[in-house]
Write a structure and sequence with these properties.
This protein is an all-alpha fold and 98 residues long. The protein has one domain. The chain has five helices and no strands. Helix 1 packs antiparallel against helix 2 and helix 2 packs antiparallel against helix 3. The longest helix has 27 residues. The radius of gyration is 21 Å and the shape is elongated.
Length: 98
Amino acid sequence: MSYLIYVTYAVAAVYIVLSFTMLYVFYRSSHFGMFVMGLTYGCSGLLAILLGHWWPLVSGYVLVWILKWLGLDPESEARNEGGGMRDEGNTERDEMTK
């Protein structure tokens, strides 16, 4: 047995943990993209463990990126802010001196 099989099992285990995490986030937020990406990671991780090959991990990663390009990933809060600095905590006096 090669050392590569242990690396494959370790990465597959990470995929399965990531899948459980994404499915929990889906349970909390009901975002359909998290459900599909979680299933994709989980199925590719389980397939890699059952077959003992590395290619299900690569195909799962590629499929998740295709799903992200299709717009199924949830928007983060940083993207919705517009990227500019916010003026929090300014008082009327600060506004008058500008």
